[in-house]
Amino acid sequence: MIELASVIRDLREELEQAVVAAEGEALRFELGTIELELSVAVERTGHAGAKVRFWVVESGADMTASRTSTQLIKLALQPTLTGSRNPPFVSGRAGRNER
Questions:
Q1: Could you tell me what percentage of the chain is helix, strand and coil, using 3-state DSSP and rounding each to the nearest 5?
Q2: Which domain holds residue 65?
């Protein structure tokens, strides 16, 4: 399982790379609302002051913890650039490690 915060952080990094790649390109895409639909495991530990944690369930993951339940959540994220009122743009080119 992967922490939900890690998934969002990795998405942010990928989008930042796409925004940088779009600079100076003739063909760009306006980045609109991003919708993520994820299967998450909700885990609550039993000690005092415990937090609820959300884990993204990987395909084929085996859920064996007795205090963990799996839920489907949908997040709608509206990307913005710090200090700008204009929508961000991304390029259509794949990176070196992508096809």
A1: 20, 35, 45
A2: 2-90
